[in-house]
From TrEMBL:
GO MF entries: beta-galactosidase activity
Catalytic activity: Hydrolysis of terminal non-reducing beta-D-galactose residues in beta-D-galactosides
One Pfam family it belongs to: BetaGal_ABD_1
Domain Beta-galactosidase galactose-binding stretches: 510-568
Official protein name in the record: Beta-galactosidase
PROSITE patterns tied to this protein: GLYCOSYL_HYDROL_F35
Statement: the UniProt record of this protein carries the keyword Zinc: no
Source organism (scientific name): Enterococcus termitis
Annotated EC: 3.2.1.23
Active site: 157 (proton donor), 239 (nucleophile)
PANTHER family: BETA-GALACTOSIDASE RELATED (PTHR23421)
Amino acid sequence: MQTFEIKEDFLLDGKPIKLISGAIHYFRMTPGQWEDSLYNLKALGANTVETYIPWNLHEPSEGVYDFEGLKNIEAFVKLAQKIGLLVILRPSVYICAEWEFGGLPAWLLKEQGIRLRSTDPRFMEKVRHYFSVLIPKLVPLQLTHGGPVIMMQVENEYGSYGMEKEYLHQTKQLMEKFGVDVPLFTSDGAWDEVLDAGTLIEEDVFTAGNFGSRSKENAEVMRNFMERHGKKWPIMCMEYWDGWFNRWGEPIIKRDVQDLAAEVKDMLEVGSLNLYMFHGGTNFGFYNGCSARGTLDLPQVTSYDYDALLTEAGEPTEKYYHVQKAIKEVCPDVWQAEPRTKELRNLGTYPVGNSVSLFATKDKMIDSQQTVYPLSMEEAGTGYGYVLYSAKLKNYQHENKLKIVEASDRIQVYVEGKLEAVQYQESIGDDLVISGSDGKKDIELEVLVENLGRVNYGFKLNSPTQSKGIRGGIMQDIHFHQGYDQYPLTLSEKQLQRIDYTAGQNPQHPSFYQVTFELNTVADTFIDCSCYGKGVVLVNGFNLGRYWNVGPIRSLYCPKEILKVGENEVVIFETEGFEIKELVFSAQAIID
């Protein structure tokens, strides 16, 4: 049985080891990609892989757990061990990671006033239930039980959010209660304020840092902090940022290759590091996160390419080879090899076969809920995707004011089937002026609300705007309207199967477009969305994620595992009135 200890050095079987690690998120890629990605990390010269574990992915509804397919953390860890890598796990209930709500489940928001990441008894009880299922799955994977896991994280960048040491203490106790016996750690930024607030150094929980430049300067801050607490631990950067994430409507962020290689070399000279990200992958489905900048919420794109050492699709980049060389210069005895590459292919162009308006098929597709006042997205459904609110307003035969009160994040207002307005956080609540059809008793109102992604970092984590859909209500003139039909649109397999493509077309409405086609062979590819507006693409029922013509990325990565030899079905949900005529594959990402 191997041993791992943290003393003045990291010790594996009593011998000093420099941890050279890379972040690979099993949940941001299909299982068929895992082996190549892990092998390429090993070939880089690394000896360790690190991954977060997102709570919201594994407990999508309270008390309902899922560890199958790309959620199979046990299979991922065992594969890493087979390839010869040690493993660092970060099962903290909050992960940030540019992931929806930082990994916290949307259903937590059903508890009015719950204080997240705190000793609020309601929160800690839900953490206890989750850990009672998750941690026993991880226990046999620990080095102490013959597995490859050498460390686990208690909390992530807590010093950038709170300072409640009792919360950290209770979380640590839960992990230990359910069987964690490898060393524990926290990771925070490399400055005193967040290190003081976010660490459990007084309980001998190892202190790691997160940074991506000024390696020796930040290492010195970490060293001084530990020495003030009587520790002579090794220096470890748990997130060595080699690139950065991207947001809709903003240019792609790139990092200079030579600069990164030089900084990696500096970091390895003074300690250990985990490259964040080694392989970024994809924010499939509705799991992209959101940045908070002042009053603005800025959703992040579907691709989590991150300008990492491997592309979103897993191809080695120029960075890979420069960092590989830098590792060899500092650690000449590491094993390295040529990385594996893959072929990305254009699989052709196929016509749309059927289409239907959401408004025409909604009653067959979705079980609606009738209420006096509108439900939030979490109350009406899972809290992800969209929710459509339908109402009949009294027609006063003249212009009326209309106002949507307290809604998130993006609303499209349709009056008598015609788009009247699109509003975002900064404009939701502005008055609209609407009119009904002459002679009609009622005005048909449809409001489609999209959750663009919950904030995953910072001061807005407990903000009311994290609850999506309509929280306040809809006002006609100066009174709140009563009487709603709510249609939570999650694009689940059940919903997709119930789409009635004969119900009626109207490309001006949010619409579904169906493409069926035959493939003789499958390959990794991209779907060209450059002629689409905004929406989601589902391939054989698998939600690839969102596209949006604001850019900067105008395509969606499609792993070959999602495709089939034989008949395939692609469903495109388009919300902007773009009439989609064809599905176009591409051998490369399409970037503005």
